[in-house]
Write a structure and sequence with these properties.
Blueprint lengths: L4 E5 L10 H9 L2 E2 L10 H14 L4 E6 L1 H12 L6 E7 L10 H4 L14 E5 L8 H11 L2 E4 L16 H12 L1
Parallel strand pairs: 1-2, 1-3, 3-4, 4-5, 5-6
Amino acid sequence: MTAVSVLILPGWQNSGPQHWHSLWQTQFGYQRVEQHDWMRPLRGDWIARLEDVLLSLDAPAVLVAHSLGCQLVAAWAAISKNTDRVKAALLVAPGDAEREELRPVLGSWSPLVLTPLPFPSTLVASSGDPYCTLERATEFASAWCSRLVNAGALGHINADSGLGDWPAGQALLQELIQI
């Protein structure tokens, strides 16, 4: 098996120390893609940063995105000429940046990119996510040609969900790494 780099792509406001993203980074040595501004995310800036990190890697990447990070994957994949650098993506609790209450902060993310991803992906959604309905997450999965996993009522699948290092998510990631 070819070695891969695992990139952590947090959403708006980053992932705190108890988020499974941060726990995986510590436990497994995955690399977080640091953004210039976590509080006022601009789509173009975030895309450019992801592109820079991907171009710096010596191995193909598996992306592990949460919330707005999922929208980043779709937006980046739609314009990059380097999508071959990504082996697969785990997309967790995609944020719906077009929700009325989010538009003032996430305006640069609209319209959302709803085109097929050029690599395998699994989208994990929660029936209790306050930032994206299960129906909307299902639309994203369909548009991106992602395998959909309904995780049940886990909220936003973040630290508040009480998942710890989220072994079920790690199992889904390992499936993608093995592709």
